[in-house]
Amino acid sequence: MGRTSKDKRDVYYRLAKENGWRARSAFKLLQLDEQFQLFQGVTRAVDLCAAPGSWSQVLSQKIGGQGCGHVVVAVDLQAMAPIPGVVQIQGDITQLSTAKEIIQHFEGCPADLVVCDGAPDVTGLHDVDEYMQAQLLLAALNIATHVLKPGGCFVAKIFRGRDVTLLYSQLRVFFSSVLCAKPRSSRNSSIEAFAVCQSYDPPAGFTPDLTRPLLDHSYDPDFNQLDGPSRIIVPFVTCGDLSSYDSDRSYPLDLEDGSEYKYTPPTQPPISPSYQEACRLKKKGWLAKEIHPQHHPISRVDTLPQPLATPESHTLLAPEMEDN
Amino acid sequence: MDALEDYVWPRATSELMLLPVTGLECVGDRLLAGEGPDVLVYSLDFGGHLRMMKRMQNLLGHYLIHGFRVRPEPNGDLDAEAMVAVFGSKGLRIVKVSWGQGHFRELWRSGLWNMSDWIWDARWLEGNVALALGHNSVVLYDPVVGCILQEVPCTDRCTLSSACLIGDTWKEVTIVAGAVSNQLLVWYPAAALADNKPVAPDRRVSGHVGVIFSMSYLESKGLLATASEDRSVRIWKVGDLRVPGGRVQSIGHCFGHSARVWQVKLLENYLISAGEDCVCLVWSHEGEILQAFRGHQGRGIRAIAAHERQTWVITGGDDSGIRLWHLVGRGYPGSGVSALSFKSHSRPGTLKAVTLAGSWRLLAVTDTGALYLYDLEIKCWEQLLEDKYFQSYCLLEAAPGPEGFGLCAMANGEGRVKVVPINTPTAAVDQTLFPGKVHSLSWALRGYEELLLLASGPGGVVACLEISAAPSGKAIFVKERCRYLLPPSKQRWHTCSTFLPPGDFLVCGDRRGSVLLFPSRPGLLKDPGVGGKAGTGTGVSGADSGSGEGGNAFVGWGPVSTLPSLHGKQGVTSVTCHGGYVYTTGRDGAYYQLFVRGGQLQPVLRQKSCRGMNWLAGLRMVPDGSMVILGFHANEFVVWSPRSHEKLHIVNCGGGHRSWAFSDTEAAMAFAYLKDGDVMLYQALGGCTRPHVILREGLHGREITCVRRVGTITLGPEFGVPSLMDPDNLEPGSEGPGLTDIVITCSEDTTVCVLALPTTTGSAHALTAVCNHISSVRAVAVWGIGTPGGSQDPRPGLTAHVVSAGGRAEMHCFSILVTPDPSTPSRLACHVMHLTSHRLDEYWDRQRNRHRMIKVDPETRYMSLAVCEFDRPGLGPLVAAACSDGAVRLFLLQNSGQFLRLFAETFHHKRCVLKVHSFTHEAPNQRRRLFLCSAATDGNLAFWDLTTVLDCGSNALEPPEDPGLPYRLGTPSLTVQAHSCGVNSLHTLPTNDGHHLVASGSEDGSIHVFMLAVEMPELEEAVGEAEMVSQLRVLEEYSVPCAHAAHVTGLKILSPSLMVSASIDQRLTFWRLGHGEPTFMNSTVYHVPDVADMDCWPVSPEFGHRCALGGQGLEVYNWYD
């Protein structure tokens, strides 16, 4: 497996590098825009959880460069390499100060579009991952209620797992149109999709409050059942036309358009990931190692505790054995 | 909706579950394990044996268990009864159990209390429970009534990733919260002046650069440990956390894991951490690693528990396995390595070779030709003999068997061999066998009756000496029985030998990597041509030199069967016979299972050892029935267990090129090697086993990608199938003969697993695993299901052919044979025989004109498989594969699976093909027609008529563009745009009126159902030679757009009026068909996330249907028809 194998397996990864996008997810926003004309008439846009910045790149290209009054603000907890035409805020989206700072950059005007492509680092435990993703989305929604103009649009990543219908019902409270969209550049094998919420219309009497987290709904026996027929499943839209590349397909390195393949290094490697120190230590062989018995003289054989016999246990799931 | 409809038929109930173990807790000698919403209660005895007491089902509804908190009893007695708070996600339930004297009873359970937010920690505060919730708030909850008594938020409502509650009363309760900002926040909920008034954090502690996943507080020493995403564990000196304003001091920053750390636990003297790298590390409080426990497979260890009195650590993995480890004794029962102090003035010369005769006598020879004995019990050296003929070059090999039979053999560079009785070295017998160097020596022992010594000389000649002892035991007799001739090669000598039971043949391995079968008494064979062919001295191998028989220059008997270069150029290192099979190991890093059928060696299965260990040196069967592999991993000698994936013994010996010896008995093992002119000895009690115990076997290390049911075996009462002892729990239909379903699962962990799922006990047994794939396995298909004795034979059993395929364009074909075996827990044994394999790029490498062809992308993944069986005997079957490079490929399997070749392909879809499905159409007076349906990521279904593809002159196929390339499949008979995006499930069912119901489920959550009509042109029109072409037509078509909230990955039409679907949104839904649009009947929430496949089958009228869901775990449902 050479460095080109990922290029072969994932055509969008490769195209992103070749087109200077920081991540393949740039295509997802482009394809969402193709379907929903998200950027039409947008002058002020916010990119939440922006790092590494591919969506900000798209926003700055589509909105930022169009003259005065067009502002793109990118917010992330982590540092991000600068992008021309994008105002960056390194801050926490759960803080009121961040919302105020965003509005400040818009000179007091609310935003037309809020996007959030953030995802937690998945742990592999599905319920935790889905919960953390939902909290990220709700935090994004919470700050969006502060900065979004009525009628504005909100796009955020969702994991379509067990409790995604609870998120749909929460989003429905704030937007008159909620759709689930999946761009063709998102793989079939991935459970990610995007909630495209249009026409921001908070319920009467709602006052935005960042000091209180928005919580996801719980199942309701009447209109959003756990296992009954009435679950809130919003319409699903596939974005991007069929002529676009298939993200699940493996393509040969020489694409059909005749361009010759040339390896491109990643556009923007991650800035100080959390595992940096561990990797540095590992590279130098400085990770703590266990002490092997040979390094310690252990006196005599007969002082050791009697070992145990391993029982025969090829059974994955034993039957219950009760002797009463 | 009225109540009646709530119980609409059919209703699926969960029968068994194999999920990641997400919670573990030791309570006295009980172990609680959380698996999905169920709690498994085990009892542990002193020996570390685990006995399942009870599965408490469905404690948390659709939530998964993340922890238990046992209510501390004032008298400290938890042996008889306990009150347990079970929590996970947003759910909490209290259950009161009685478990004294081996009896388990659930006394009471509270309601399932739903919180508004995630529960990160729970703590008993007298009768109530304090809960740390997801957005940094603490709730005091009455778990009996089910109401919030008080809720106190922090002023900082950040999202948490972990929390730890400390204190025994609400007044002193302290929360340490791990925020997503990587900080620790310490605050005191009781400081709230009024209810719901936020409390400011008392302290903020920074240090980690990643999210904190777990913490543990040790009150007695005032220590706090945290585990983080940044792959480190930190130890903090915090003092008494219940006192506000204390100092927090980082006293240890431990890097030892190679991935994220999920769990940490502080014990009085140790710190235990475990993580994504599947390693459980034991640290001292000073941050020094004392032990590393390795063995779990897959995505990590999710739960740890400690039994401090017994000093055990128990870990639960993502692979659903549970293991027990010993904290003391450093895990290794080995006494380490000791030098035997050979060097002395009285013992001149340097050591050349070492061997072990049994487990307590060691023999070594020097370059002066002196043979020494070292008794491991008396611990002293003794010279046995000295012979100048054995100077400088000397081979030394002790006889096998208990205490080495008291014999050893030496051989020199001039063809001389000496057999030495160790107790009476003066009775040694010398023989000169060859005019040149003896290259190798090996023994073969048959019971106590026959002992052979094989010596390889020049020219590939192997002399076979028969050794016997005089009844007095004082003298031995050495008689040359015969000579064998090895196939020619540069390094032409044998390396190992053993008797093939019952003893008519010898199995040998040679330096060229071949495995050979020789008759053990070729002289008794009347006609040498029958049993073995004699070779001549011309150096031609025995196999093709029949003409030389009876000639003057007879050199030796050739092998009757050869597997040439089975282990590659580095040679075979050992042969072992066990349980009807021959096992060989080689320096290619693999071990083979073989058997002898009709006098011929046949490979059954090739298995790889652990990663990086390319020099396998031997294989041993251990008393518990599993095997261990000996080998060299870089400069270490390793005893590795394929069953537990553990390195049981590691000896840093410097590599396998030096002289070494190994011996093991049930009680002890020893490994001796030469280093620095001395003999080094490693010894361990308990043979090759290690006192680490697998409490429960894991299933797959990664996601299950495909589930296929093979068949059902009915075991009568004579096989003693265990049934549930508790008659109250007996489901109707679970009495009577034991039905066991055989199911095959394959996984991203590159293995294919054969499972036995008895219907009576709700248990699951892994019969065998096939590990031939180099990349993830995505699909399996099964065909040719039968019974071992044919349809007339009433004996239970099952045979089937299986083809598996996955990443790196790799496909394997094997057969399985499941037979009753009373010695196993499942009463079944599964024998696997590998038949053939195929890789697309390998196929290209073999083509002669490959420079003119485009190499098929080796990264192509096979997404799905379907077997198309023809009704004419001897033909096919065809295996259709959905490929990620946009092709549907047809492979032809010939010789009952022995030969697989790419036959035809089509790039019709031009997108990643996700599913293929085959079905047949039968109509009176017509040829049975075979159809294939393929579906791609664009939501398009294509139907192909494959009936005539194998006929001569068929126009179903277009000839290849280039000779040597596969045929091209023509245009499809029908295409249907069923969905807007990828199709993840596909199924068909013939209806009574001669049509076919076709159902597909998609990534967008929609289900598409239509009726397909197969129309043949009228017979009058089709007269003549013209081939009949079927016409496919869609009759009725229905779509359910929002059937599920995520990918529909499982779909089965059970009858023309009933369909079942499964999705990643974790719902199993029944649909009514046949009245227009499919209508929702009911759905059940299941617990396996990321379900990739589903299979359903009817079991019996009494038992109803069974359904297996495979994803991140396995769950089996059943319902009554």
Automatic annotation (TrEMBL), chain A:
Q: Pfam families, alphabetically?
A: FtsJ
Q: What is its main location?
A: cytoplasm
The EC number of this protein is 2.1.1.205
Q: Which GO terms describe its molecular function?
A: tRNA (guanosine(34)-2'-O)-methyltransferase activity
Any GO BP annotation = cytoplasmic translation
From the UniProt entry, list the residue stretches annotated as the region Disordered. Answer: 295-324
Cellular component GO terms, alphabetical? cytoplasm; nucleus
Record's catalysed reaction(s) = cytidine(32)/guanosine(34) in tRNA + 2 S-adenosyl-L-methionine = 2'-O-methylcytidine(32)/2'-O-methylguanosine(34) in tRNA + 2 S-adenosyl-L-homocysteine + 2 H(+)
Q: What class of enzyme is it?
A: transferase
What are the subcellular locations of this protein?
A: Cytoplasm; Nucleus
Q: Which InterPro entries match?
A: RNA_methyltr_E_TRM7 (IPR028590), RNA_methyltr_RlmE (IPR050082), RNA_MeTrfase_FtsJ_dom (IPR002877), rRNA-MeTfrase_E (IPR015507), SAM-dependent_MTases_sf (IPR029063)
Positions contributing to S-adenosyl-L-methionine binding:
53, 55, 76, 92, 117
State the family it belongs to: Belongs to the class I-like SAM-binding methyltransferase superfamily. RNA methyltransferase RlmE family. TRM7 subfamily.
What job does the chain carry out? Methylates the 2'-O-ribose of nucleotides at positions 32 and 34 of the tRNA anticodon loop of substrate tRNAs.
Subunit structure and binding partners: Interacts with WDR6; the interaction is direct, and required for 2'-O-methylation of position 34 in substrate tRNAs.
* Name of protein: Putative tRNA (cytidine(32)/guanosine(34)-2'-O)-methyltransferase
Q: Which species is the source of this protein?
A: Otolemur garnettii
* This protein's encoding gene: FTSJ1
From TrEMBL, chain B:
Q: What does this protein do?
A: Together with methyltransferase FTSJ1, methylates the 2'-O-ribose of nucleotides at position 34 of the tRNA anticodon loop of substrate tRNAs. Required for the correct positioning of the substrate tRNA for methylation. Required to suppress amino acid starvation-induced autophagy. Enhances the STK11/LKB1-induced cell growth suppression activity.
Has the keyword Repeat been applied to this entry?
yes
**Protein's cellular compartments:** Cytoplasm
Keywords (alphabetical) are: Acetylation, Cell cycle, Cytoplasm, Repeat, tRNA processing, WD repeat
Q: List the gene name.
A: WDR6
WD repeat spans? 205-238
Where this protein primarily resides, as one coarse class? Answer: cytoplasm
For this chain, the family text in UniProt reads:
Belongs to the WD repeat WDR6 family.
Q: Name one GO biological process term.
A: wobble position ribose methylation
Q: What is this protein called?
A: tRNA (34-2'-O)-methyltransferase regulator WDR6
